[in-house]
Amino acid sequence: MTKRILSVVGARPQFIKAAALSRVFLEAPDFEEVLVHTGQHFDDNMSAVFFEELAIPKPGYNLDIHGGGHGQMTGRMLEAIETVVEQEKLDSVLVYGDTNSTLAGALAAAKLHIPVVHVEAGLRSFNRRMPEEINRVMADHLSAVLLCPTREAVANLANEGVTKGVYQVGDVMYDATLFAKQAAERSLGILDRLDLERDGYSLCTIHRAENTDDGARFRRVLEFLEAAAVDGPVVFPIHPRTRQTLERHDLNPKRVRLIDPVGYFDMHRLLSGARQVFTDSGGLQKEAYFHRVPCVTLRDETEWVETVEAGWNRLWTSDAYQPRAEISDYGDGKAAQKIADVLREELA
């Protein structure tokens, strides 16, 4: 029998992960996917461009919910997703990662007794001041099927007493990166437009509340980037919320080159040509490794500890990388197919 799955997405990293899995669902006669876009990332540069480039099916529901505090946003999403779940005859609700959309989708499904499937389960920064950490923990403890990218994630869940329905499947972001690398390498494109030379620049992103909501910390991050830019330009596709923070504190970095957000393939082209990456994004830390570009994480901890242990990533509070090694946990680029196989078994 065909299994109907409601996939909840709302932010750029979730669009990317969903694209990898949606391609598998589309080719499988025993799955039917209904896509819900909460609207958490809503402008064209942060949303529409990814649906177009990644050929993600048009959402069955676009909730257009964005703005407001965490409680307000999550509550509005919960109410709207609950209505969708009640309308659809579903076998499961699938959520990705650690956003407010993730938590809202998991809560709505669990309260209506629909099995929750969590892609990227088990990740922990062990920093409860991060809203993402709260979302991760809550989603995991509401889920019936927990799809972990790494052994560390499986161990984290076991330490919290969660062992049933747990699978290590690899990382769907690696699936997505392999898809993007082929398209990104076909043309220099954005490097020509920005007059950049391969290995002649660094790439930066900042968007997390721990950096953007604290004015003093945000200034320290910018000073760190300004110092790094002495050795070559730091190209910064700036998140709308981060631009608001710059304007609110009247900050105008001199050496860091601010540009508008870019599409998925352009981002991979920038990433593959960069000398190094500075970011507070969990996804970009991994994507940097997939392109074998060294990364500096602009946070005091990271969920992706294996990237640090393998010497491809370091925290900005550390001066040195560990000896470099390959990371086997992320899999072979077939995580999405493994997820489909798990769901066939679990939803049977």
Describe the structure.
The chain is α/β, with parallel strands linked by helices and 348 residues long. The protein has helices spanning 12-27, 48-53, 70-87, 100-111, 131-142, 151-159, 172-184, 190-193, 209-212, 215-228, 240-248, 264-273, 282-290, 305-309, 335-346, and strands at 3-9, 31-37, 61-62, 92-96, 116-119, 145-148, 166-168, 202-205, 234-237, 256-259, 276-279, 295-297, 313-315. The strands form two sheets. A seven-stranded parallel beta sheet has the order 3-2-1-4-5-6-7, with helices on both faces. It has a six-stranded parallel beta sheet with strand order 10-9-8-11-12-13. The chain starts with a strand and ends with a helix. The relative contact order is 0.13.
Provide the fold topology.
Elements: E1 3-9, H1 12-27, E2 31-37, H2 48-53, E3 61-62, H3 70-87, E4 92-96, H4 100-111, E5 116-119, H5 131-142, E6 145-148, H6 151-159, E7 166-168, H7 172-184, H8 190-193, E8 202-205, H9 209-212, H10 215-228, E9 234-237, H11 240-248, E10 256-259, H12 264-273, E11 276-279, H13 282-290, E12 295-297, H14 305-309, E13 313-315, H15 335-346
Parallel strand pairs: 1-2, 1-4, 2-3, 4-5, 5-6, 6-7, 8-9, 8-11, 9-10, 11-12, 12-13
Helix pairs in contact: 1-7, 1-15, 3-4, 4-5, 7-12, 7-13
DSSP strand content? 15-25%
Helix-strand sequence: EHEHEHEHEHEHEHHEHHEHEHEHEHEH
> Total number of helical segments?
15
Alpha carbon gyration radius: 19 Å
Unreliable stretches: none
Helical content stands at: 40-55%
Average predicted confidence as pLDDT: 92
For the terminal residues, how far apart are their CA atoms?
A: 9 Å
Shape: globular
Structural class: alpha/beta
Strand arrangement in the largest pleated sheet? 3-2-1-4-5-6-7
Write down how many β-strands occur, each being a DSSP E stretch of 2 or more residues. 13
Please summarize the sheet with the most strands: 7 strands, parallel
